[in-house]
Give the backbone structure.
Amino acid sequence: MCAALERLLRGMALDVRTFGEAEELRATVEQELPNCLVLGLGPEQRLGLDVLERVRATGEHVSVVFVSDRSEVALSVRAMKDGAVDVLQRPVDLSALLAAVVSGLAVDAEFREVRERVVEATDRLRALTPRERQVCSLVASGKANKRIAAELGTSEKTVKVHRGRVMHKLGASSVVELVRLLEQVGLHRA
């Protein structure tokens, strides 16, 4: 079955790798390329569910499409709750499998892109001085410069300077962009 799926997916111009051991699989999933795993699902095939559990416990993401020999309702439900892209039953409809894999690759690529933006935003935030962080937080909460100056015990002109530096360092051209950036790193809630 594995060889047949490999030929099919290679025929669709996808980079396909097969694994004999779980350690090989884990090392590949941690690479920075979008991944979608196609794994067997059944009482004796626990690797896929174990991979999903481990990945979810770390806060990371992996796209998985499960292929089941028979209707394993309880395992299928658990797999979907744990974040599987799809659970397909053998014999597998090839168009459904291809659609599930393409969907899984898209979801994984999006996750990696968001994670990269969060890392970049976090790095930018680290470049702020403590006073700039204070001003940033107050600006993001919707406060006017005059109000910020009063809260910080400084002049409005000084707040404008800090606000300008914050916007420049974070690459934000508006308060909306600033708030989005802070939301990405979990420092602000809409």
The beta strands are 36-41, 63-68, 86-89. Residues 2-116 form a domain with the Rossmann fold fold (CATH 3.40.50.2300). The chain has a mean pLDDT of 83. The chain has nine helices and three strands.
